[in-house]
Protein backbone atom coordinates (compact mmCIF):
# COMPACT_ATOMS: atom_id res chain seq x y z
CA UNK A 1 0.00 0.00 0.00
CA UNK A 2 2.86 2.31 0.85
CA UNK A 3 4.50 1.95 -2.56
CA UNK A 4 1.33 1.63 -4.65
CA UNK A 5 1.93 4.81 -6.66
CA UNK A 6 5.63 4.07 -7.13
CA UNK A 7 4.77 0.56 -8.38
CA UNK A 8 2.06 1.94 -10.67
CA UNK A 9 4.50 4.40 -12.20
CA UNK A 10 7.11 1.66 -12.58
CA UNK A 11 4.58 -0.52 -14.41
CA UNK A 12 3.50 2.33 -16.69
CA UNK A 13 7.10 3.20 -17.55
CA UNK A 14 7.87 -0.42 -18.43
CA UNK A 15 5.06 -0.41 -21.00
CA UNK A 16 6.94 2.19 -23.02
CA UNK A 17 9.75 1.26 -25.45
CA UNK A 18 13.17 1.37 -23.79
CA UNK A 19 14.60 4.56 -25.38
CA UNK A 20 11.52 6.54 -24.34
CA UNK A 21 11.48 5.37 -20.74
CA UNK A 22 13.27 8.35 -19.11
CA UNK A 23 11.00 10.80 -20.92
CA UNK A 24 7.88 8.81 -20.04
CA UNK A 25 9.00 8.61 -16.42
CA UNK A 26 9.39 12.39 -16.17
CA UNK A 27 6.08 12.93 -17.95
CA UNK A 28 4.20 10.64 -15.55
CA UNK A 29 5.76 12.37 -12.52
CA UNK A 30 4.83 15.80 -13.85
CA UNK A 31 1.28 14.69 -14.71
CA UNK A 32 0.85 13.14 -11.26
CA UNK A 33 2.08 16.29 -9.48
CA UNK A 34 -0.11 18.58 -11.58
CA UNK A 35 -3.17 16.34 -11.33
CA UNK A 36 -2.91 15.70 -7.60
CA UNK A 37 -2.32 19.30 -6.63
CA UNK A 38 -4.89 20.76 -9.02
CA UNK A 39 -7.45 18.43 -7.40
CA UNK A 40 -6.25 19.47 -3.97
CA UNK A 41 -6.63 23.09 -5.09
CA UNK A 42 -10.30 22.51 -5.96
CA UNK A 43 -10.83 20.79 -2.62
CA UNK A 44 -9.05 23.55 -0.71
CA UNK A 45 -11.10 26.38 -2.23
CA UNK A 46 -14.21 24.62 -0.97
CA UNK A 47 -12.65 23.91 2.44
CA UNK A 48 -11.54 27.51 2.75
CA UNK A 49 -14.93 28.96 1.85
CA UNK A 50 -16.73 26.55 4.14
CA UNK A 51 -14.25 27.04 6.97
CA UNK A 52 -14.30 30.82 6.75
CA UNK A 53 -18.08 30.77 6.58
CA UNK A 54 -18.23 28.67 9.73
CA UNK A 55 -15.92 31.10 11.52
CA UNK A 56 -18.04 34.02 10.39
CA UNK A 57 -21.24 32.32 11.49
CA UNK A 58 -22.79 31.83 8.04
CA UNK A 59 -23.39 28.87 5.73
CA UNK A 60 -20.93 29.38 2.88
CA UNK A 61 -21.55 27.76 -0.51
CA UNK A 62 -24.55 25.43 -0.22
CA UNK A 63 -26.38 25.57 -3.56
CA UNK A 64 -24.36 23.34 -5.89
CA UNK A 65 -24.63 19.68 -4.99
CA UNK A 66 -25.19 18.34 -1.46
CA UNK A 67 -23.75 20.81 1.09
CA UNK A 68 -22.22 22.73 -1.79
CA UNK A 69 -19.52 20.11 -2.46
CA UNK A 70 -19.72 20.64 -6.23
CA UNK A 71 -18.97 24.34 -5.87
CA UNK A 72 -15.36 24.06 -7.23
CA UNK A 73 -16.80 22.56 -10.43
CA UNK A 74 -19.18 25.48 -10.81
CA UNK A 75 -16.32 27.90 -10.11
CA UNK A 76 -14.23 26.22 -12.81
CA UNK A 77 -17.00 26.43 -15.40
CA UNK A 78 -17.57 30.06 -14.47
CA UNK A 79 -13.87 30.91 -14.85
CA UNK A 80 -13.73 29.19 -18.25
CA UNK A 81 -16.81 30.82 -19.70
CA UNK A 82 -16.24 34.35 -18.40
CA UNK A 83 -15.15 37.01 -20.84
CA UNK A 84 -11.42 37.61 -20.89
CA UNK A 85 -11.09 41.38 -20.51
CA UNK A 86 -7.81 43.14 -21.27
CA UNK A 87 -7.70 46.91 -20.60
CA UNK A 88 -7.14 49.07 -23.67
CA UNK A 89 -4.03 50.67 -22.19
CA UNK A 90 -2.57 47.37 -21.03
CA UNK A 91 0.65 45.90 -22.33
CA UNK A 92 -0.94 42.86 -24.00
CA UNK A 93 2.08 40.58 -24.18
CA UNK A 94 3.22 41.06 -20.60
CA UNK A 95 -0.38 40.97 -19.36
CA UNK A 96 -0.81 37.58 -21.03
CA UNK A 97 2.49 36.15 -19.79
CA UNK A 98 2.19 37.16 -16.12
CA UNK A 99 -0.14 34.32 -14.97
CA UNK A 100 2.03 31.75 -16.77
CA UNK A 101 5.20 33.08 -15.13
CA UNK A 102 3.46 32.53 -11.79
CA UNK A 103 1.99 29.07 -12.37
CA UNK A 104 5.03 27.40 -13.96
CA UNK A 105 7.54 28.11 -11.13
CA UNK A 106 5.16 27.10 -8.34
CA UNK A 107 4.54 23.72 -9.98
CA UNK A 108 8.29 23.37 -10.54
CA UNK A 109 8.86 24.02 -6.84
CA UNK A 110 6.59 21.08 -5.98
CA UNK A 111 8.87 18.78 -7.97
CA UNK A 112 11.48 18.57 -5.18
CA UNK A 113 9.02 18.00 -2.32
CA UNK A 114 9.00 14.31 -1.30
CA UNK A 115 5.35 13.28 -0.99
CA UNK A 116 6.01 9.81 0.33
CA UNK A 117 8.69 7.15 0.53
CA UNK A 118 10.50 7.25 -2.87
CA UNK A 119 7.93 9.79 -4.06
CA UNK A 120 9.90 12.93 -4.85
CA UNK A 121 9.47 13.79 -8.52
CA UNK A 122 13.17 14.70 -8.71
CA UNK A 123 15.83 14.28 -6.04
CA UNK A 124 18.27 17.13 -6.60
CA UNK A 125 21.47 17.52 -4.59
CA UNK A 126 20.53 21.15 -4.12
CA UNK A 127 16.79 20.60 -3.74
CA UNK A 128 16.12 23.28 -1.13
CA UNK A 129 18.16 25.79 -3.13
CA UNK A 130 16.15 24.88 -6.23
CA UNK A 131 12.92 25.47 -4.32
CA UNK A 132 13.93 28.97 -3.26
CA UNK A 133 15.36 29.77 -6.68
CA UNK A 134 12.14 29.03 -8.56
CA UNK A 135 10.19 30.73 -5.79
CA UNK A 136 12.13 33.91 -6.53
CA UNK A 137 10.77 33.94 -10.08
CA UNK A 138 7.22 34.49 -8.85
CA UNK A 139 8.11 38.03 -7.76
CA UNK A 140 8.74 38.88 -11.39
CA UNK A 141 5.29 37.59 -12.30
CA UNK A 142 3.67 39.79 -9.68
CA UNK A 143 5.50 42.78 -11.06
CA UNK A 144 4.54 41.88 -14.64
CA UNK A 145 0.88 41.62 -13.66
CA UNK A 146 0.89 44.88 -11.74
CA UNK A 147 2.78 46.91 -14.30
CA UNK A 148 1.19 45.61 -17.50
CA UNK A 149 -2.38 46.27 -16.34
CA UNK A 150 -1.72 50.01 -16.43
CA UNK A 151 -3.82 50.57 -13.38
CA UNK A 152 -2.73 52.51 -10.31
CA UNK A 153 -4.18 49.94 -7.94
CA UNK A 154 -2.43 47.13 -9.76
CA UNK A 155 0.92 48.86 -9.60
CA UNK A 156 0.49 49.76 -5.93
CA UNK A 157 -0.44 46.17 -5.15
CA UNK A 158 2.53 44.83 -7.07
CA UNK A 159 4.91 47.20 -5.29
CA UNK A 160 3.53 46.17 -1.93
CA UNK A 161 3.75 42.51 -2.87
CA UNK A 162 7.34 42.71 -4.08
CA UNK A 163 8.48 44.67 -1.03
CA UNK A 164 6.82 42.15 1.22
CA UNK A 165 8.08 39.08 -0.63
CA UNK A 166 11.67 40.32 -0.69
CA UNK A 167 11.54 41.21 3.01
CA UNK A 168 10.10 37.89 4.13
CA UNK A 169 12.28 35.80 1.85
CA UNK A 170 15.23 36.57 4.14
CA UNK A 171 13.75 35.04 7.34
CA UNK A 172 12.21 32.24 5.25
CA UNK A 173 15.58 31.13 3.92
CA UNK A 174 17.45 31.80 7.17
CA UNK A 175 15.01 29.69 9.17
CA UNK A 176 15.46 26.87 6.66
CA UNK A 177 19.25 27.12 7.04
CA UNK A 178 19.09 25.63 10.54
CA UNK A 179 17.64 22.39 9.15
CA UNK A 180 20.23 22.28 6.39
CA UNK A 181 22.94 22.63 9.04
CA UNK A 182 21.45 19.85 11.14
CA UNK A 183 20.81 17.45 8.26
CA UNK A 184 24.06 18.30 6.49
CA UNK A 185 22.40 18.25 3.07
CA UNK A 186 20.39 20.42 0.72
CA UNK A 187 18.58 17.41 -0.72
CA UNK A 188 14.96 17.22 0.45
CA UNK A 189 15.05 13.42 0.42
CA UNK A 190 18.12 13.34 2.68
CA UNK A 191 16.56 15.92 5.02
CA UNK A 192 13.54 13.64 5.48
CA UNK A 193 15.84 10.67 5.99
CA UNK A 194 17.72 12.62 8.69
CA UNK A 195 14.48 12.84 10.69
CA UNK A 196 13.78 9.09 10.62
CA UNK A 197 13.58 6.95 13.72
CA UNK A 198 11.95 7.22 17.12
CA UNK A 199 13.30 7.38 20.65
CA UNK A 200 10.90 6.67 23.49
CA UNK A 201 7.93 6.81 21.13
CA UNK A 202 8.80 10.32 19.95
CA UNK A 203 9.93 10.99 16.39
CA UNK A 204 13.25 12.70 15.60
CA UNK A 205 11.55 15.60 13.84
CA UNK A 206 13.43 18.85 13.84
CA UNK A 207 10.38 20.70 15.15
CA UNK A 208 10.86 18.88 18.46
CA UNK A 209 14.08 20.76 19.25
CA UNK A 210 14.24 24.35 20.60
CA UNK A 211 15.78 25.76 17.42
CA UNK A 212 13.49 23.61 15.26
CA UNK A 213 10.37 24.91 16.97
CA UNK A 214 11.49 28.52 16.64
CA UNK A 215 12.55 27.87 13.04
CA UNK A 216 9.21 26.24 12.23
CA UNK A 217 7.21 29.16 13.61
CA UNK A 218 9.43 31.68 11.79
CA UNK A 219 9.16 29.64 8.61
CA UNK A 220 5.37 29.46 8.84
CA UNK A 221 5.02 33.21 9.41
CA UNK A 222 7.37 34.00 6.54
CA UNK A 223 5.54 31.45 4.37
CA UNK A 224 2.22 33.16 5.07
CA UNK A 225 3.78 36.44 3.97
CA UNK A 226 5.34 34.87 0.87
CA UNK A 227 1.97 33.48 -0.21
CA UNK A 228 0.34 36.89 0.40
CA UNK A 229 -2.13 35.27 2.70
CA UNK A 230 -3.95 36.91 5.57
CA UNK A 231 -2.79 38.56 7.85
CA UNK A 232 -0.16 39.54 5.27
CA UNK A 233 -2.58 40.07 2.37
CA UNK A 234 -1.83 43.77 1.94
CA UNK A 235 -0.99 43.34 -1.75
CA UNK A 236 -4.60 42.34 -2.32
CA UNK A 237 -6.17 44.44 0.43
CA UNK A 238 -9.62 44.59 -1.09
CA UNK A 239 -10.71 47.44 1.14
CA UNK A 240 -7.76 49.66 0.14
CA UNK A 241 -6.58 48.75 -3.34
CA UNK A 242 -9.49 46.57 -4.55
CA UNK A 243 -7.54 43.42 -5.36
CA UNK A 244 -4.02 44.65 -5.96
CA UNK A 245 -2.11 43.31 -8.89
CA UNK A 246 -4.93 41.27 -10.34
CA UNK A 247 -7.65 43.91 -10.55
CA UNK A 248 -7.49 43.80 -14.32
CA UNK A 249 -7.56 40.03 -14.66
CA UNK A 250 -10.75 38.15 -15.39
CA UNK A 251 -11.91 34.74 -16.50
CA UNK A 252 -9.30 32.06 -16.87
CA UNK A 253 -6.28 34.30 -16.33
CA UNK A 254 -7.64 35.21 -12.92
CA UNK A 255 -8.25 31.53 -12.25
CA UNK A 256 -4.61 30.87 -13.12
CA UNK A 257 -3.48 33.47 -10.58
CA UNK A 258 -5.76 31.92 -8.01
CA UNK A 259 -4.36 28.48 -8.83
CA UNK A 260 -0.80 29.81 -8.63
CA UNK A 261 -1.39 31.29 -5.18
CA UNK A 262 -2.82 28.06 -3.81
CA UNK A 263 -0.18 25.85 -5.40
CA UNK A 264 2.45 28.19 -3.95
CA UNK A 265 0.85 27.69 -0.57
CA UNK A 266 0.92 23.89 -0.99
CA UNK A 267 4.54 24.02 -2.11
CA UNK A 268 5.75 26.10 0.80
CA UNK A 269 3.69 24.02 3.25
CA UNK A 270 5.18 20.90 1.69
CA UNK A 271 8.64 22.32 2.25
CA UNK A 272 7.78 23.19 5.86
CA UNK A 273 6.65 19.58 6.36
CA UNK A 274 9.84 18.29 4.73
CA UNK A 275 12.13 20.53 6.75
CA UNK A 276 10.55 20.47 10.18
CA UNK A 277 7.72 17.94 10.41
CA UNK A 278 9.59 14.85 9.30
CA UNK A 279 8.25 14.77 5.74
CA UNK A 280 6.18 11.67 5.10
CA UNK A 281 7.13 9.94 8.37
CA UNK A 282 4.51 8.91 10.90
CA UNK A 283 4.45 10.87 14.18
CA UNK A 284 4.52 7.72 16.32
CA UNK A 285 6.14 4.39 15.57
CA UNK A 286 2.85 2.58 16.25
CA UNK A 287 1.21 4.55 13.42
CA UNK A 288 3.87 3.75 10.82
CA UNK A 289 1.63 1.16 9.13
CA UNK A 290 -0.31 3.95 7.42
CA UNK A 291 1.10 4.69 3.94
CA UNK A 292 3.71 7.44 3.83
CA UNK A 293 1.85 9.54 1.24
CA UNK A 294 -1.22 9.54 3.49
CA UNK A 295 0.91 11.09 6.25
CA UNK A 296 2.28 13.72 3.91
CA UNK A 297 -1.13 14.79 2.71
CA UNK A 298 -2.58 14.64 6.22
CA UNK A 299 0.12 17.03 7.41
CA UNK A 300 -0.43 19.21 4.35
CA UNK A 301 -4.15 19.44 5.02
CA UNK A 302 -3.46 20.21 8.68
CA UNK A 303 -1.19 23.09 7.70
CA UNK A 304 -3.75 24.37 5.18
CA UNK A 305 -6.36 24.17 7.91
CA UNK A 306 -4.05 26.24 10.10
CA UNK A 307 -3.68 28.81 7.32
CA UNK A 308 -7.47 29.04 6.92
CA UNK A 309 -7.87 29.37 10.66
CA UNK A 310 -5.31 32.20 10.77
CA UNK A 311 -7.09 33.91 7.88
CA UNK A 312 -10.39 33.71 9.70
CA UNK A 313 -8.91 35.00 12.94
CA UNK A 314 -6.33 37.74 12.44
CA UNK A 315 -6.90 41.24 11.02
CA UNK A 316 -4.68 42.58 8.26
CA UNK A 317 -1.38 44.26 9.20
CA UNK A 318 -0.40 47.78 8.23
CA UNK A 319 2.51 48.29 5.83
CA UNK A 320 4.89 49.77 8.42
CA UNK A 321 4.01 47.05 10.93
CA UNK A 322 4.71 44.46 8.26
CA UNK A 323 8.17 45.79 7.44
CA UNK A 324 9.10 46.42 11.09
CA UNK A 325 8.12 42.90 11.97
CA UNK A 326 10.19 41.42 9.15
CA UNK A 327 13.39 43.37 9.68
CA UNK A 328 13.39 44.09 13.42
CA UNK A 329 11.95 40.87 14.77
CA UNK A 330 12.03 38.00 12.25
CA UNK A 331 15.54 38.65 10.92
CA UNK A 332 17.40 38.89 14.30
CA UNK A 333 15.35 35.99 15.60
CA UNK A 334 16.32 33.85 12.62
CA UNK A 335 20.00 34.74 13.09
CA UNK A 336 19.93 33.85 16.79
CA UNK A 337 18.18 30.64 15.81
CA UNK A 338 21.05 29.73 13.49
CA UNK A 339 23.43 30.24 16.41
CA UNK A 340 21.24 27.97 18.55
CA UNK A 341 21.27 25.28 15.87
CA UNK A 342 25.06 25.50 15.72
CA UNK A 343 25.35 25.16 19.51
CA UNK A 344 22.97 22.20 19.40
CA UNK A 345 25.52 20.39 17.28
CA UNK A 346 28.54 21.05 19.49
CA UNK A 347 27.27 21.14 23.10
CA UNK A 348 27.45 17.48 24.11
CA UNK A 349 25.38 16.32 27.10
CA UNK A 350 21.74 16.29 25.99
CA UNK A 351 20.19 18.08 29.03
CA UNK A 352 22.78 20.87 28.84
CA UNK A 353 22.19 21.51 25.15
CA UNK A 354 18.44 21.50 25.68
CA UNK A 355 18.88 24.11 28.41
CA UNK A 356 21.38 26.26 26.48
CA UNK A 357 19.43 26.29 23.21
CA UNK A 358 16.06 26.82 24.90
CA UNK A 359 17.46 29.72 26.92
CA UNK A 360 19.03 31.26 23.84
CA UNK A 361 15.86 31.09 21.76
CA UNK A 362 13.53 32.15 24.56
CA UNK A 363 15.90 34.93 25.61
CA UNK A 364 16.08 36.28 22.07
CA UNK A 365 12.29 36.13 21.78
CA UNK A 366 11.70 37.98 25.05
CA UNK A 367 14.53 40.45 24.52
CA UNK A 368 13.43 41.38 21.01
CA UNK A 369 9.84 41.69 22.13
CA UNK A 370 10.85 43.96 25.00
CA UNK A 371 13.09 46.09 22.77
CA UNK A 372 10.39 46.53 20.13
CA UNK A 373 7.63 47.47 22.56
CA UNK A 374 9.78 49.59 24.88
CA UNK A 375 8.74 53.00 23.66
CA UNK A 376 5.33 51.91 22.47
CA UNK A 377 2.42 53.20 24.54
CA UNK A 378 -0.34 50.68 24.25
CA UNK A 379 -3.64 52.00 25.48
CA UNK A 380 -7.27 51.67 24.62
CA UNK A 381 -8.12 53.72 21.57
CA UNK A 382 -11.43 55.32 20.91
CA UNK A 383 -12.62 56.36 17.49
CA UNK A 384 -15.47 58.68 16.79
CA UNK A 385 -16.67 61.86 15.14
CA UNK A 386 -15.76 65.11 16.78
CA UNK B 1 19.32 21.89 -25.84
CA UNK B 2 22.46 24.01 -25.52
CA UNK B 3 22.01 25.86 -28.86
CA UNK B 4 18.39 26.61 -27.95
CA UNK B 5 19.44 28.07 -24.60
CA UNK B 6 22.16 30.05 -26.33
CA UNK B 7 19.62 31.48 -28.77
CA UNK B 8 17.26 32.39 -25.90
CA UNK B 9 20.09 34.08 -23.99
CA UNK B 10 21.32 36.01 -27.02
CA UNK B 11 17.80 37.03 -28.08
CA UNK B 12 17.06 38.21 -24.55
CA UNK B 13 20.26 40.22 -24.41
CA UNK B 14 19.61 41.75 -27.85
CA UNK B 15 16.06 42.64 -26.89
CA UNK B 16 17.27 44.14 -23.59
CA UNK B 17 19.54 46.38 -25.64
CA UNK B 18 17.22 47.27 -28.50
CA UNK B 19 13.68 47.56 -27.14
CA UNK B 20 12.29 51.04 -26.63
CA UNK B 21 10.24 50.42 -23.48
CA UNK B 22 12.57 50.28 -20.48
CA UNK B 23 10.42 47.81 -18.54
CA UNK B 24 10.40 45.51 -21.57
CA UNK B 25 14.18 45.81 -21.62
CA UNK B 26 14.36 44.78 -17.96
CA UNK B 27 12.09 41.78 -18.58
CA UNK B 28 14.15 40.79 -21.62
CA UNK B 29 17.26 41.01 -19.46
CA UNK B 30 15.57 38.63 -17.00
CA UNK B 31 14.99 36.21 -19.91
CA UNK B 32 18.66 36.47 -20.86
CA UNK B 33 19.71 35.79 -17.25
CA UNK B 34 17.35 32.83 -17.12
CA UNK B 35 18.86 31.44 -20.32
CA UNK B 36 22.30 31.80 -18.76
CA UNK B 37 21.10 29.87 -15.71
CA UNK B 38 19.85 27.16 -18.06
CA UNK B 39 23.27 26.99 -19.69
CA UNK B 40 24.95 26.57 -16.30
CA UNK B 41 22.54 23.75 -15.44
CA UNK B 42 23.18 22.15 -18.84
CA UNK B 43 26.89 22.17 -18.01
CA UNK B 44 26.24 20.37 -14.72
CA UNK B 45 26.88 23.35 -12.44
CA UNK B 46 23.79 23.05 -10.27
CA UNK B 47 24.84 25.48 -7.58
CA UNK B 48 25.83 28.25 -9.97
CA UNK B 49 22.64 27.76 -11.99
CA UNK B 50 20.30 27.99 -9.00
CA UNK B 51 22.26 30.86 -7.49
CA UNK B 52 21.98 32.64 -10.84
CA UNK B 53 18.18 32.34 -10.75
CA UNK B 54 17.94 33.24 -7.06
CA UNK B 55 20.23 36.26 -7.23
CA UNK B 56 19.82 37.61 -10.74
CA UNK B 57 16.15 36.94 -11.52
CA UNK B 58 14.92 37.07 -7.94
CA UNK B 59 16.86 40.13 -6.82
CA UNK B 60 18.80 41.98 -9.51
CA UNK B 61 15.98 42.04 -12.08
CA UNK B 62 13.55 43.23 -9.40
CA UNK B 63 15.95 45.97 -8.29
CA UNK B 64 16.37 47.11 -11.90
CA UNK B 65 12.61 47.21 -12.36
CA UNK B 66 12.19 49.18 -9.14
CA UNK B 67 14.87 51.63 -10.22
CA UNK B 68 13.12 52.18 -13.56
CA UNK B 69 9.73 52.73 -11.95
CA UNK B 70 11.08 55.05 -9.26
CA UNK B 71 13.01 57.25 -11.65
CA UNK B 72 11.40 57.82 -15.03
CA UNK B 73 8.24 55.77 -14.94
CA UNK B 74 9.40 53.50 -17.74
CA UNK B 75 8.60 55.91 -20.56
CA UNK B 76 10.24 55.38 -23.91
CA UNK B 77 13.22 57.66 -24.51
CA UNK B 78 12.74 60.50 -26.95
CA UNK B 79 15.89 59.94 -28.98
CA UNK B 80 16.89 56.84 -30.96
CA UNK B 81 18.06 53.80 -29.06
CA UNK B 82 21.08 53.20 -31.31
CA UNK B 83 23.75 55.81 -31.83
CA UNK B 84 24.35 56.77 -35.46
CA UNK B 85 27.81 55.22 -35.47
CA UNK B 86 26.70 51.69 -34.57
CA UNK B 87 28.44 50.01 -37.58
CA UNK B 88 31.79 51.22 -36.18
CA UNK B 89 30.91 49.72 -32.80
CA UNK B 90 30.02 46.39 -34.40
CA UNK B 91 33.32 46.45 -36.30
CA UNK B 92 35.33 47.11 -33.14
CA UNK B 93 33.45 44.41 -31.21
CA UNK B 94 34.05 41.86 -34.01
CA UNK B 95 37.75 42.76 -34.17
CA UNK B 96 38.16 42.32 -30.41
CA UNK B 97 36.26 39.02 -30.50
CA UNK B 98 38.41 37.81 -33.41
CA UNK B 99 41.69 38.73 -31.72
CA UNK B 100 40.73 37.16 -28.39
CA UNK B 101 39.39 33.93 -29.87
CA UNK B 102 42.39 33.71 -32.21
CA UNK B 103 44.79 33.99 -29.28
CA UNK B 104 42.88 31.47 -27.19
CA UNK B 105 42.64 28.94 -30.02
CA UNK B 106 46.32 29.26 -30.98
CA UNK B 107 47.47 29.00 -27.37
CA UNK B 108 49.63 25.97 -26.63
CA UNK B 109 48.60 25.95 -22.96
CA UNK B 110 44.98 25.16 -23.80
CA UNK B 111 45.08 21.37 -24.46
CA UNK B 112 47.40 20.77 -21.52
CA UNK B 113 45.05 22.45 -19.10
CA UNK B 114 41.91 20.49 -20.02
CA UNK B 115 40.63 19.25 -16.65
CA UNK B 116 39.47 15.63 -16.42
CA UNK B 117 35.90 16.16 -15.23
CA UNK B 118 35.06 19.11 -12.99
CA UNK B 119 32.88 17.62 -10.25
CA UNK B 120 31.81 20.88 -8.63
CA UNK B 121 28.90 19.55 -6.65
CA UNK B 122 27.01 21.84 -4.31
CA UNK B 123 28.37 19.97 -1.29
CA UNK B 124 31.98 20.43 -2.45
CA UNK B 125 31.45 24.14 -3.08
CA UNK B 126 30.00 24.46 0.41
CA UNK B 127 32.94 22.56 1.94
CA UNK B 128 35.46 24.74 0.14
CA UNK B 129 33.64 27.94 1.14
CA UNK B 130 33.66 26.89 4.77
CA UNK B 131 37.29 25.68 4.89
CA UNK B 132 39.78 26.94 2.31
CA UNK B 133 37.90 30.08 1.21
CA UNK B 134 36.60 31.11 4.62
CA UNK B 135 38.62 34.34 4.74
CA UNK B 136 37.44 35.72 1.36
CA UNK B 137 33.90 34.73 2.28
CA UNK B 138 34.07 36.61 5.57
CA UNK B 139 35.63 39.66 3.90
CA UNK B 140 32.87 39.65 1.29
CA UNK B 141 30.25 39.36 4.01
CA UNK B 142 31.77 42.30 5.86
CA UNK B 143 31.88 44.36 2.67
CA UNK B 144 28.23 43.64 1.87
CA UNK B 145 27.18 44.42 5.44
CA UNK B 146 29.03 47.71 5.26
CA UNK B 147 27.29 48.51 1.96
CA UNK B 148 23.92 47.64 3.50
CA UNK B 149 24.51 49.85 6.54
CA UNK B 150 25.69 52.64 4.25
CA UNK B 151 22.50 52.39 2.20
CA UNK B 152 20.40 52.54 5.35
CA UNK B 153 22.29 55.60 6.60
CA UNK B 154 21.81 57.42 3.29
CA UNK B 155 18.09 56.65 3.35
CA UNK B 156 17.78 57.81 6.98
CA UNK B 157 19.57 61.12 6.44
CA UNK B 158 17.18 61.97 3.63
CA UNK B 159 14.24 61.55 5.94
CA UNK B 160 15.78 63.76 8.66
CA UNK B 161 16.34 66.63 6.19
CA UNK B 162 12.76 66.72 5.05
State the helicity of chain B in percent bands. over 70%
Strand portion of chain B = under 5%
| Low confidence ranges of chain A | none
Describe the oligomeric state of these chains in a short phrase.
heterodimer
- Largest beta sheet of chain A: what is the strand line-up? 1-2
Named at the architecture level, the CATH assignment of the largest domain in chain B is: Up-down Bundle
Summarize the main sheet of chain A.
Answer: 2 strands, antiparallel
Shape designation of chain A: globular
The number of strands of chain B is: 0
Shape of chain B: extended
Q: What percent strand of chain A?
A: under 5%
Number of helices of chain B: 7
N→C terminal distance of chain B: 55 Å
Class from secondary-structure proportions of chain A? mainly alpha
Spell the H/E element sequence of chain A.
Answer: HHHHHHHEEHHHHHH
Could you please describe the fold and organization of this structure?
Chain A has helices spanning 4-15, 21-55, 71-81, 92-110, 127-148, 152-183, 188-194, 210-226, 238-241, 251-276, 292-313, 319-346, 350-373, and strands at 198-199, 202-203. By secondary structure, chain A is an all-alpha fold. Chain A has one domain. Chain A starts with a helix and ends in a 13-residue tail after the last helix. The model of chain A has no long low-confidence stretch (mean pLDDT 84). Chain B contains 7 helices and no strands. Chain B has helices spanning 2-18, 22-42, 46-71, 86-106, 109-112, 122-130, 134-161. Helix content of chain B is 78%, strand content 0%. Chain B is extended. By secondary structure, chain B is mostly helical. Chain B has 2 domains: 1-76, Up-down Bundle (Four Helix Bundle (Hemerythrin (Met), subunit A)), CATH 1.20.120.1200; 120-162. Chain B starts with a helix and ends with a helix. The chains are: A mainly alpha (386), B mainly alpha (162). The A-B interface holds A 91, 94, 124-126, 129-130, 132-137, 139-140, 143-144, 147, 155, 159, 162, 166, 169, 185-186 and B 21, 23-24, 27, 30, 34, 46-47, 50-51, 53-54, 57-59, 61-62, 65-66, 69, 74, 121-123.
